[in-house]
Amino acid sequence: MSLSIFLLLIIILQNIVVDASSYSNLKIYKSLNAAHHCFRRMNQTHQIGCSSSPHNSFGVAVLLRDDHDLDLVQRSGQDAPYTILISAEKFMNRTIVHNLRNAGSNRISGILILDEGIKPLNGYSPDRSCPNIHSSLYSNRSGLGECVNQRWNIIDSEPQSSSFNQIDNPYEQSDGLQFYHYPFPIFLLRNKTQIDLLKWKIASFNRAYYPKLSLQLSSSMIGAKDSLTCLRRTLMMMNSLVSDVFCDPLKGYNIFHHTIDLKTVKKIEKNSIVMLIVRHDSFSMFEGISPGADSAISSLVVLLAVAHLLNHELVKPKLNHLKKKELMFAIFDGEAWDYIGSSDTVHRIIEGTFPLSNPVIIADNDIKRKLSLEHISHVIELNQLLPSSEINRLYLHKNLHTTGLLRDLIKLIQQESVGISDNLEILTVPEEQPLPPSSAHSFLKRRSDYDFAVLVATNHEKEYTNKFYNSFYESIPHNGDLNELSRDLTNLATLFGRVLYRLLTEESLIPTIHANETIVGGLLKCYLHDSNCPLFRAVLDPERAFQLAHSEPMPPYPTYISAFPASKILREFTRALLFWFTGERSTEIMNRTECDAKNGQNDQQESFQWIAGEHYNGECIHSSAYKIATTSPAINHSTMEIIPENIHLYPIWTESRWSEVSVRMFVVPSLTYEICVVLLGIFIVSWSFIIVVFLDRYSNELFDDNPLNRCKQTNNIDGQPPSQVELVTSSPPGIVITAH
């Protein structure tokens, strides 16, 4: 019993100690809500991005304000390593960031960016001045491959008098901050309350004397070196008893819809398909934040509005009856990373493995109905479309030389723009100017004959008007006026709806039919402001849509392609919207069970989906819109193994995995104080050891309370020694036991 009580006391004491340590941990550390961290990506040859050390990164916090602070953390400071707190505006100065990077992890333990929501006037982009330079159509052409004649992503700024504030010449830095490797973690903090708390704590503690405020940054990356090495390590582990994963290929979903009737068509004719293409993704240096308002969302919204226009009840029947060509919508994923989506699509087309319908619904092996590049006559790409001035100028870019087919297409666009809006102006670019970075490069690298017209429509003639290209600032403020923007994008949707109708039917669309401005405004709200919006809810299950209708607004989803399932939510919403906008309602089907049962039939190219609809009553929609998983063509889609013959043709971008991500602040004492604590601890332990030894040696004399010992030292009542005492026990009557 005594042993059980002893063990119980030990367990209780252990729980008390654990609770006390947890409480002490809460008292020592204050966690910050810095959810956006820079992470590591890799290609065939390099790694870029950030990582903390495996044991986390600690450093004395320093708010970087001027040249003195910069010199302190780089050279003169005695309290290294330092964790740098820097305003978002100063972080956008490449000179400052490169100086901190070159100082090394022994001086700099990490950077915490304090973003108070004020966009810098000069702009900021972490991308290269020539985006996707290594996958360009001109990468092997002298004078064009390095964007010598035309740099697209340029941030103009005027030098300041201070070397600290001076921003380097953008022409001298072809690589943006995204494409460097940093030997320390970088976090982005956007919580105004916690930013103010940090500034107050630094002002209170970080003076010439201790204690000082310090930060612990945790974002240790597991993958390292390059994609080839990391994927090989991952495959080796997956084939063993330990299933550790070091990195994952960037992968997403391409989304398609076409008007080809696979049930009746016997053969797809040459030059019989017109493609309207856009990109779906953007990126930034930080996880979970990639708005892509201009680089991706503007053109995506216009494409969806065009799809909605051509599905109008007065347009679709006539289009189906008069069409002489077929239409295909294509939304490519991963375009910000060397055109992953479009290059994968072109590769599948060339290999004869591109499906013309949902692979789950139908398996079509008829070679006569396989898509070929020769089947495509026009590729019209919508690129960055947000207007940069009061006049909505649209520039039509082409590949160096204009063919007759291209000339006719440009003339057609100019003709159809008449009467749409006085605010819309169509312009062409000089003949000798190359194409801007765009998905069109993937098509032109494989086909460039005179019967193939490729055009890129965008809001800039030369350098980007988008000064926040592929950055966390590429968004539209919540207090911004979406009405005017919706009007401009609606005009563009009307224009390209008319152009496509004319290309397909050789007739003009009814002049009174325009794109729906309410739809355009709703799409902008969904993608840029509130993901719990009416249009997103309309394509959900009715019960779920009704629940969300009574919920709070939700932040927009990031557009970054990523490698994890969370990033696929936005792609599924986009697919569902294209499905809804191009589909038809089955009026005879009144419940989800009947709608889902239609997908079991194998004699169709369309799929059926039960959605909430505009009023959340539920409706069954059937459409041929579908999605295809996409990743680099140099990776096997099924096994994720590297295809050796393709690694020199297509880049392989991977994303490292990580474990814990956190930012915590605490107060660190001086070295003298720590030494005193250690010496005091040694003194206490030493004296404790001496006392324990002393007590152990003299315990018999000090703590001798054994009853038998007292019995030995005590005489009996007759005065005889103990050895002569008769001990009477509970023996049977008449028996006496005598001890001698």
Automatic annotation (TrEMBL):
Residues 37-221 form the Nicastrin small lobe domain. SUPFAM superfamilies: Zn-dependent exopeptidases (SSF53187). It is a single-pass type I membrane protein. GO terms for biological process: Notch receptor processing; Notch signaling pathway; protein processing. The chain crosses the membrane at residues 671-695. InterPro entries: Ncstrn_small, Nicastrin. The keyword Cytoplasm does not apply. It is found in: Membrane. Belongs to the nicastrin family. This is Nicastrin. It comes from Blomia tropicalis (Mite).
